[in-house]
Design goal:
- This protein has 361 residues and is α/β, with parallel strands linked by helices.
- The chain has three domains: 162 residues, NAD(P)-binding Rossmann-like Domain (Rossmann fold), CATH 3.40.50; 100 residues, 6-phosphogluconate dehydrogenase C-terminal fold (Orthogonal Bundle), CATH 1.10.3660.10; 69 residues, ACT domain (Alpha-Beta Plaits, 2-Layer Sandwich).
- Helix content is 46%, strand content 17%.
- The protein contains 14 helices and twelve strands.
- The strands form three sheets. The protein has a five-stranded parallel sheet with strand order 3-2-1-4-5, with helices on both faces. The chain has a four-stranded antiparallel sheet with strand order 10-11-9-12, covered by helices on one side. A three-stranded mixed sheet has the order 6-7-8, with helices on one face.
- The longest helix is centred in the middle third of the chain and has 24 residues.
- Bound molecules: nicotinamide-adenine-dinucleotide and prephenic acid.
- The site of prephenic acid has 8 residues, from loops.
């Protein structure tokens, strides 16, 4: 970012694609008092998003300041071209891959229109789709890539960065091709790894599945995502993804050899590389990773208990970085995982136990 002040996002903001991401952005803007108008191929999704307070259906008389294209990847280029032709607004898209839509849009629009287009990509989402999965808090503290092309107008880049900041996210500027290589590693490969592991579960005996704990849930959550969306993402970034899959294939061969040979040192080296990889992931707010530890607490399954747990953690003075709740089938308690700074974990455990909570050490 330059030191110049960013252009103010005053609206109206037009969201094309009122699904998970589009409606989440629309909710943020609406709550800030910025007028939001919605377009979607599905009337029902517009109605739902409207009902959630995310804005109203767009009309031909609207003159948006910014258009946010949030449709499935295969529809993005057409929607960008359409928005550039129909409006004189700055246009961004939130698609998961950046080079392919830019290449498809460039020959279809004039230079002045192309200058108003700046791609972007919030690094936040969910395995769920549609407006009902949307949340105004989705982007809080998350990175959001802003990927200007060589002839992008600086005002347009600034306005997109203003949107990112208004959504509570951190803009990260990057070229489209570099972005695609980066997300192949930090988003697309993890997704495929989750899919492969989850695929082993689909036909597993129910007695085996009954033992499912937090580990398998952590590793497989994103595998529940919409296959049609991910097919389009992977097709648009196949080259970078294939390079990484080849590396993983070699890793898998080495892993099989190490497991079969019972060769302790080789196996430990492979496992330690996993430690190094997780430690390399920056903290949610960017910057170096802050070491965290999970504290597991049994929470009775009745109203108000979770609020009481959070209240106690607040009184103890420990900040909760993240939280996961696991309902144990057939048991009247849920297991809650509180992720806290490593240095505070023992203090939190001891203080919660003294207040009568059952913890798992
Ligand atoms: N799901 C995620 O976690 C995530 C995260 C970041 C970015 N993205 C990207 O955001 C975009 C939207 O993803 P999503 O998860 O919100 O999907 P979604 O399915 O929840 O929403 C897509 C919306 O677009 C509408 N739509 C489809 N074709 C359209 C068209 N031609 N014109 C107008 N509306 C149309 C659909 O009716 C739907 O309401 C995708 O490009 C995806 O790559 C997704
Ligand atoms: O957390 C999730 O559920 C996601 O799917 C998020 C995630 C990611 O891999 O980080 C997935 C794809 C998007 O392009 C951006 C974000």
């Amino acid at each position: 970012m330059t030191d110049d002040p960013l252009p103010a996002l005053t609206g109206p903001v037009e969201v094309v694609g009122a699904g998970l991401i589009g409606t989440s952005i629309a909710l943020v803007c609406s709550r800030l008092g910025i007028e939001v108008v919605l377009r979607d191929a599905s009337e029902e999704n517009i109605r739902t998003a409207h009902g959630l307070g995310a804005g109203r259906a767009a009309t031909d008389a609207d003159r948006p300041q910014l258009v946010v294209v949030a449709v499935p990847p295969a529809r993005i280029a057409d929607a960008i071209v359409e928005a550039l032709g129909r409006t004189d607004a700055v246009v961004t898209d939130v698609g998961s891959v950046k080079a392919a839509p830019l290449a498809a849009v460039t020959p279809r629009v004039g230079a002045a229109d192309l200058a108003r287009y700046v791609g972007s990509h919030p690094m936040a989402g969910s395995e769920r789709s549609g407006p009902l999965a949307a949340s105004a808090a989705l982007f809080d503290g998350r990175p959001w890539a802003v990927t200007p092309h060589g002839s992008a107008d600086s005002h347009a880049v600034g306005l997109v960065e203003s949107l990112v900041l208004e959504c509570g996210a951190a803009p990260v500027r990057m070229g489209p091709t570099e972005h695609d290589r980066a997300v192949a590693r930090i988003s697309h490969l993890p997704h495929l790894a989750a899919v492969l592991v989850a695929g082993r579960l689909a036909t597993a005996p129910v007695e085996h599945l009954a033992l499912s704990g937090q580990g398998v849930r952590d590793v497989t959550r994103v595998a529940a995502s919409d296959p049609a969306l991910w097919q389009q993402i992977l097709e648009a970034n196949s080259e970078a993804v294939l390079d990484l899959l080849a590396e993983v294939r070699a890793d898998l061969d080495a892993l099989m050899t190490a497991v079969a040979a019972d060769s302790g040192p080789d196996l430990v080296e492979i496992l330690a590389r996993g430690n190094a990889g997780t430690a390399a992931i920056p903290g949610k707010h960017g910057g170096p990773a802050r070491p965290t530890r999970s504290v597991f607490v049994a929470v009775p399954d009745h109203p108000g208990e979770l609020a009481r747990l959070f209240g106690d953690a607040g009184e103890i003075g420990v900040n909760i970085e993240d939280v996961h709740i696991d309902h144990d089938p057939g048991r009247p308690v849920g297991l809650t995982e509180l992720v806290v700074e490593r240095g505070s974990a023992e203090r939190l455990l001891a203080a919660l136990e003294s207040r009568g909570w059952t913890t798992h050490r």
